[in-house]
Design brief:
8 helices, 467 residues, alpha+beta, 4 domains, signal, Co/Zn/Cd efflux system membrane fusion protein, 33% strand, conserved putative lor/sdh protein from methanococcus maripaludis s2 fold
Length: 467
């Protein structure tokens, strides 16, 4: 009896243990813990595993130590683990992406293709128009010194071209027999007026005043100034030499006479120009002159004075176009301190044109095929979609987007051509971007037909390479 009890009790305990273990296993607690232990072990093994190195140009080359690629001799880079695998997509997803021309890149492929993205932003767009120009005389500040009476140049006070002249100082002295006779007539008229002014007959007194006025008029027509006539009347004797004055102060540009030379009425003695202000005639291309306005600020730069700018404004736009250069000339007026700008000097002009606030992307983001402009938009991490865009104004770094991309969307600013090439290699619809404009089709635009791979040729798939 005691022996049976000793055997029955352990058997009962064993049966209860088996039943409990069976219930614990079926409840899944044990299996979940087992899976957690396996995952922890795999993670620990992955973390403790030595790093692998691969070639950016030949991803199938994998080594467990740094070095160089045996094919292209490039430095091996550390292989990125846990990268997204585009082959994990279902066939339906891959077909849909191919139909839309989308391309998915793993992190390793993005590094290899040097793909960088940037958001499209709304900002003030200011572009610069550059043009070449030629410094010219200000035509309103040019004058000719001419002989108002025939005679002989007895004295020249300006003997060289480039000399500074002033309108208050004579540039030459002229001897003229006609001038001498006219002065004597004036003096006789003055004496007659003085004798006849007290005459009781009014007509006689008025006749004396008329003689003086007629003689004065003749002197003034010969170039004699009012001050000189007053001095002549005060002295009572005629002046043998007539001083000749220039109409304005400036620089002698041309000298046509020599001392002792005889000149006739109307002969040019000097050409004088005031260089305190000059004109710059700039040539603007046919495609740019619509942005030029009268009163627009212009900065003039010269190679003779690097780092220094001269400020002026557009004063006139010529109403014709040069058929040889296909340019329109615009006149810029500006001060010339120190007469640094010389006539016929070549200069560069910079005009800033504001296009207002607009959606902009970097210039490197736009791919121009000649017929259309395309950008690659990152619609979700690692997935890019082609968009046909309409561009507007351009600067050195930015381009205005009129349609196709909205502010805030991320576009590929580098590596876009490699993404496009990858899409073509995968047989995507990269040639037809018209359905990805983000808006309605432009009028008159017919969607391009996607090019299919040639029969018998399989497109190259980069996903086949081991990453």
């Amino acid at each position: 009896m005691n022996l049976n009890k000793k055997i029955a009790i352990p058997l009962s305990i064993l049966a209860l243990s088996v039943a409990g273990a069976s219930w614990f296993y079926k409840s899944g607690t044990f299996s979940k813990q087992t899976e957690l232990h396996k995952a922890d072990g795999a993670r620990h093994q992955e973390q403790s595993a030595p790093p692998l190195y691969t070639c950016p140009m030949h991803p199938f080359i994998i080594k467990d130590a740094p070095g160089t690629c045996p094919i292209c001799a490039m430095e091996l880079v550390k292989k990125v683990t846990g990268a997204a695998d585009t082959t994990a997509l279902t066939p339906e997803q891959q077909q849909e992406m191919a139909r839309l021309g989308q391309i998915a890149l793993s992190p390793t492929q993005r590094v290899m293709a040097n793909v960088a993205v940037q958001e499209a932003r709304v900002q003030e767009l200011t572009r610069e128009i550059t043009a070449v120009g030629l410094v010219q005389y200000d035509q309103s500040r040019q004058a000719k010194v001419t002989a108002w009476i025939a005679g002989r140049i007895d004295a020249l006070h300006v003997n060289t071209v480039g000399s500074q002249v002033s309108r208050d100082r004579p540039v030459a002295e002229l001897y003229s027999p006609d001038l001498l006779a006219t002065q004597q007539e004036y003096l006789l008229a003055v004496k007659s007026r003085d004798r006849l002014k007290n005459s009781p007959i009014p007509a006689v007194a008025q006749n004396g005043e008329g003689l003086v006025a007629a003689a004065r008029q003749r002197l003034m027509l010969f170039g004699v100034k009012e001050q000189q006539i007053a001095e002549l009347e005060k002295a009572g004797t005629p002046t043998i030499k007539l001083p000749i004055y220039t109409p304005l102060s400036g620089v002698v540009v041309e000298k046509m006479v020599q001392q002792g030379q005889y000149v006739n009425v109307g002969d040019v003695l000097f050409n004088v120009a005031d260089l305190s202000r000059v004109w710059v005639e700039i040539e603007v291309y046919e495609s740019e002159f619509r942005n030029i306005r009268i009163g627009q600020a212009v900065e003039i730069r010269s190679q003779s004075f690097p780092g220094r700018g001269f400020s002026g404004r557009v004063a006139f736009i010529y109403p014709f176009l040069d058929p040889k250069t296909r340019t329109v000339k615009a006149r810029v007026e500006l001060p010339n301190p120190g007469m640094l700008l010389k006539p016929d000097m070549f200069v560069n002009a910079v005009l800033k044109v504001g296009a207002g606030a607009a959606v902009t992307v970097p210039v490197t983001a736009v791919m121009d095929s000649g017929k259309q402009q395309t950008v690659w938009v990152e619609i979700r991490p690692g997935v890019f979609e082609p968009r046909m865009v309409q561009v507007g104004q351009r600067t050195d770094a930015l381009v205005q987007i009129l349609s196709g991309v909205r502010a805030g969307e991320k576009v590929a600013v580098s590596g876009a051509y490699l993404i496009d090439s990858e899409s073509k290699l995968r047989g995507g619809a990269a040639e037809d971007h018209s359905q990805h404009t983000g808006g309605a089709q432009p009028e008159g635009k017919v969607p391009a037909v996607p090019q299919q791979p040639a029969p018998g040729k399989k497109p190259l798939n980069m996903d086949d390479m081991k990453m």
